[in-house]
Amino acid sequence: MKIALLFLACITVASAQFWHPLAPCTGDHECPPLGYCCRYSTVLLFQLCELRPAEGWPCDPTGVSSCPCHDGHICQQDAVTTEWTCQKEMEMA
User: Fold this and answer.
1) In the chain, where are the structural domains located?
2) N or C, which terminus of the chain has less Cβ within 10 Å?
3) How far apart are CA 87 and CA 80, in angstroms?
């Protein structure tokens, strides 16, 4: 059991060496390929990789303060709450 925990800890440390969530970035190409984009943080005052919003998550339609929604989703205003959230893109027939 101890060996398994040690092995798991080593894997965790090794995987953390490849990408750090607060590491500065200069473009989307420096972020993990699935689900992240490079955006300016108004809190940390530099660009960092940010998670792209999934369905139902708040979003910014201008793309200034948040990443674009995941593929297949668009940022739409909710008719009831008037908040902008990522919604599945409707296919046109």
Assistant:
1) 20-51, 53-92
2) C
3) 14
